[in-house]
Specification:
about 725 residues, 24 strands, five-stranded mixed beta sheet, elongated, single chain, alpha+beta, six-stranded antiparallel beta sheet
Amino acid sequence: MMRIGIFFGGPAREREISFLGGKTAMAHLNKALFQPIPVFVDSLGNFILIKEELIFEESIRSFYPPKSSQTAPFEVYIESLPDADAAALLAEVGKIIQPADFASHFDFAFIAMHGPGAEDGSIQGLLEWYNIPYSGPSVLGSAIGIDKAKQNEWLKKSVGLEKKFFVLQRDDYTKYGRETLFEQIKKEIGIPFVAKAPHQGSSIGLAFVKEDSIEDFDKAIKKCLFIEEIYREDWLKLDENGQVTLLQKMVNLDEGIGFPVVFSKQVYHHPSSLLSALVDYFTHTVTKASIQSIHSEDAILLESFVNGNEFSCGVIQTPTGETVALPPTEIVIDESVEVFDFNAKYKSKLTRKRIPMHASLAHLQLIQAQVKQAFDDLGFGVCTRIDGFLDTQGIVVLHDPNTIPGMSPSSLIFKQMAEIGLNISDSLTYFIRQSIRERLRTGKNYYFINQQLKALDEAIAATLQAKAAQEVQILEINGANEEALEASFQAIKIQAAELAALGTENFLVCTPLEIEEGETLLPLHVAHLSKDSAKDIPARQPFPSLNFIQMSNTELNPLQYPIGKYKNPEVITPEIRAEWIKTIASTADDLQAMLKGVDEALLEKSYREGSWSARKVIHHLMDSHMNSYIRFKMALTEDNPSIKPYSEDDWASMPDGNQAPIAWSIEGLRYIHLRWVYLMETVSEADWKRTYFHPERGITYPLDKVLGIYAWHCTHHLKHIESVL
């Protein structure tokens, strides 16, 4: 079994998102193929074999630094404690390991870290030096993926970037007047525009300049340079608790500049020492306090605002390296959200993800073609998420390739992988397998990596074979009302994810579906289970919406189901089949006897409001059983054929289905049944288990069940006809 070192945490501002990705990998990694080894990378660069239970804490600061070393009222990261006993702190959470010893602990590194140090080729280069295969793009692809400014230049050469951009150097910002720079920028790219810290995650260090305002411009630049300014009058309005809250926000990486910081040319590691310095400063000084993170940027990327629909599109590869674009996801942002930054992306309920995005097929294909082209030209591999806009003129504007997408269970990449049939466990297996294949391209340690790839492929094949030999477990989503259905949906999602992670279980998630012959179980696609709620499942073929499914335990309409819904016996015996065959054999005679001497006018009556007339029902019996007879023969002569569905309503509305003499359909039904019964009386016991697949319903039907359904169908409609006579 391959040992997978799951690297999470890291030094970047997105470390908490990385922590979620580590949790995901630990929970969802296929345990039949892989042994997960959690490797926490702290912000000082230590690699720690963490105690496994700690990875399920709420956040990094819940366990590291340990609570014993946190000083109230602040909650800080380890870089705020430079004088702490590092060895003692590390011992509380796990065991530190050196890169030279990685191979003794794991065979492969799964990188769930983000930002500088993790997505820029640094960790990738370290792992290559020590011959450890790793996930994601190579050193080169990672280095390209971290630099937003360079990406724009390369995207322009690759797909013809229809976007104005300007790179503002930090030295120029401090050297020249703000007014002069602002005027130059307006001439170059216009207003509005977006300001970005070019080496951060896609949602870190992001600001939006909407108005022709030098103050807005200045605030945006300082946000991207991670500079915090506090005005004396604002500080003096704060009580002690307010001052603490302000500095705690500065510590929090999702909303602040992060520590350590520089203030008045002095480095402050801990917010308590900065608090004392600020109290003293504002006692003696009337000017504002300017505080900046020690981890800042040397330049700022400014991009013209694009008016259009924002999307995100993952790109992966086939086992042979062919590039594949996943279905684009539309980012639907509430009007109150100015820019899709960290909080809007990860915390706000004001943004939604829509798959597929609302666009024409031609535009969706254009997006996919361009992200594939960019993926290939910029030297990415394995998986990259590329964001962009489809503007109001139908032009695709790409930006911000992300070589290690967020990997929480609700992340975009997993939702897009679900659209092509891969659950989270399958997706993680893909990332590992394809990454090993990509590492062969480095020309380093080829033999060992190739052996590792072959061993994994053999293990995957064996696991799939073992699962296929098992009886399928049915997980049923059900509920008598909307609330119960939602609760069942959420519970089954969890159960399905747990079974998938075991890697040994053969299961199918189904939900009740109302069809003509009663209630059956509809298998759900993986994409359905990736939705946040049952309400989010779209009404589309071949997988109907859960919202269209009639809740169980509702009362049956006796006019619609005069003999009840079809119920399949637990065991279908030869004796049961014989009774069903007898029912089909006698149906035409029973129907003819029922209609003898009946006034033709009665045939235009409906058996219930909104239903077909008796005439239509008679012709429908002929149509339906003609199709069933053909499907039956297909199943006996082909291996689980996919049958051709037809529209019963449309057929019934045609002239021969609602105007023709009923005698034609009665005689047609008689002769179809004669041949069908003759055939069924020759079917062997084994052949009764042969099947066909109904693509609209997503259901595989064995022939013995088909026989039962159509015997029920005969009696079901005879009762309808009888009720109008």
